[in-house]
Every structure is written in structure tokens, then in C-alpha cells.
Design a protein that fits this description.
7-stranded mixed sheet; alpha/beta; globular; Metallo-beta-lactamase, Chain A; single chain; about 240 residues; binds zinc ion; about 20% helix
Length: about 240
């Protein structure tokens, strides 16, 4: 495996345009960023064993990023998981998930493995085995508890993930940090509130990045392309990118 491997379980925005799976990606086969509703299905479609996950890292609690967790917990409970798993997310991630599951899969957490809930918030650096994570404040849905991006390092490679956000200082900090930036790009030119688009925002993000760094677009509408931006790729469902 190369130093940094990103495998996309989905790349679509919340509307699943053109049948795209909802956005999420697996880093080096061990760290799942976001738990979209089809996460378990996508992992199994790729022949990946969900018991191999060390951690799930969610950026915020919108359903397209979060409601795949119950299915992962279900798999882990009944399909032989014994070692602990970490779930990283904004404050109250544990509470929100427990509210969902107590009405949908009661007894889900009476299991033979342990869930370690890790609260992420700006200013609190996290380390998950070899993965370093700095949570970054971004500008998304004010009615949610908190929305985060993540500045990360693994195997000497710096990568970032914007989560869902309008363009803001946090996004530009991530752009400057990252050798590979996974950025949301929810539409081509539309003014989708609290999100970024290809025509207006991605040139600004790209310009803040180092010239040899790669911009990798996800959480997309079906007509998003690289639009001539340098070192810019559009992620595809079930594709793996190696850096
Ligand atoms: Zn969102």
C-alpha cells in the first residue's frame, strides 16, 4: 500500500445526483471519514471487511454524513468484531447516535467490542495510532452543534478534508496545510447555501494550495468536473487514489 490511499465509498452531495453514493472515504484501509448511509454496503461491495476499521471520523451530524453508523455498529455486533473501535466527531456525537439507535436498533451497544467516543473540537489535537488529526472550524449549518474540517498527517503525508462548508478561513487553512485536500464541491455554479461551488470557490481554494498539491473534489453534483484547474481531480464512487 502506498503512503496515503484514499478509497471513496461515495462522492455525491446530499441529493445523490445521478445515483452517486453519498460522500465518504477510507484512508489506508483503516480510517473511515464520514459514515454515509450506504457506508457498510459500499465497503462490502469493495470486498473490504468492516472489522478492519480502526476509527470512523465524522465532520458533522447531517444525515448524509452520519446515518451509516448504525449499520456499522450492527455489523460489528453480529459479525465478529472483538477489538475496540473509535468514533470521532463533534461534541454530542455519542448522544445524537444513541438517540437514533435507541429507537431503531435497541441494544445495539450491548456488544462484545468497545466503542470509544472521541470528541473533536478546534484546538484539540488528536492522535489515532499513526493518524494525526487537527479539527478545524468551518462554516456550515448553524443549527447543528458544530461542523468541522480536519487537517491530518499519516506516514509523513499531510492531507485535509473540508467536511461541508462555505468558503471560509478554515478551508483556506486546510488548503495551505494539505499535500492532498479532499474538498466538498456541492455544485458547479449554483449558490447552494452553506456549501462551495466549482466556478466561484474552487479557484480560490486551489490558489491557496501549494503547486504540487492535489485537490480532490467530492460531495459533488453530477456535472462537476475539474474545470481546467491544475492538479485537480474529481473523485469517483468506489475509486482508490494513491499518493
Ligand atoms: Zn452538511
Amino acid at each position: 500500500m502506498s503512503e496515503l490511499t484514499l478509497s471513496f465509498v461515495g462522492t455525491g452531495n446530499a441529493f445523490a445526483p445521478g445515483g452517486l453514493c453519498w460522500n465518504g472515504f477510507l484512508v489506508n484501509g483503516r480510517y473511515l471519514f464520514e459514515a454515509p448511509p450506504q457506508a457498510l454496503m459500499s465497503l462490502r461491495h469493495e470486498g473490504l471487511d468492516p472489522n478492519d476499521l480502526d476509527a470512523v471520523i465524522v465532520s458533522h451530524h447531517h444525515a448524509d454524513h452520519f446515518l451509516g453508523l448504525p449499520f456499522l455498529f450492527l455489523y460489528w455486533k453480529y459479525q465478529g468484531r472483538t477489538r475496540p473501535v473509535k468514533v470521532v466527531g463533534p461534541p454530542e456525537t455519542k448522544d445524537v447516535m444513541e438517540q437514533v439507535t435507541e429507537r431503531t436498533y435497541p441494544s445495539l451497544f450491548e456488544a462484545s467490542y468497545e466503542v470509544e467516543w472521541v470528541v473533536a473540537e478546534p484546538g484539540k489535537d488528536l492522535r489515532l495510532n499513526g493518524l494525526q488529526i487537527q479539527p478545524v472550524a468551518v462554516k456550515h449549518d448553524d443549527k447543528l452543534n458544530m461542523s468541522l474540517g480536519y487537517a491530518c498527517a499519516l506516514n509523513g503525508k499531510r492531507f485535509g478534508y473540508t467536511g461541508d462548508t462555505a468558503i471560509c478561513d478554515g478551508v483556506l487553512d486546510l488548503a495551505r496545510h494539505s499535500q492532498v485536500l479532499v474538498s466538498e464541491c456541492a455544485s458547479r455554479s449554483g449558490n447552494v447555501p452553506i456549501h462551495m461551488n466549482l466556478v466561484d470557490d474552487m479557484p480560490v481554494v486551489r490558489a491557496a494550495m501549494g503547486g504540487n498539491s492535489t485537490l480532490l473534489l467530492t460531495h459533488i453534483d453530477s456535472d462537476v468536473d475539474s474545470n481546467g484547474l491544475p492538479n485537480t481531480l474529481v473523485a469517483r464512487d468506489h475509486e482508490t487514489y494513491r499518493f
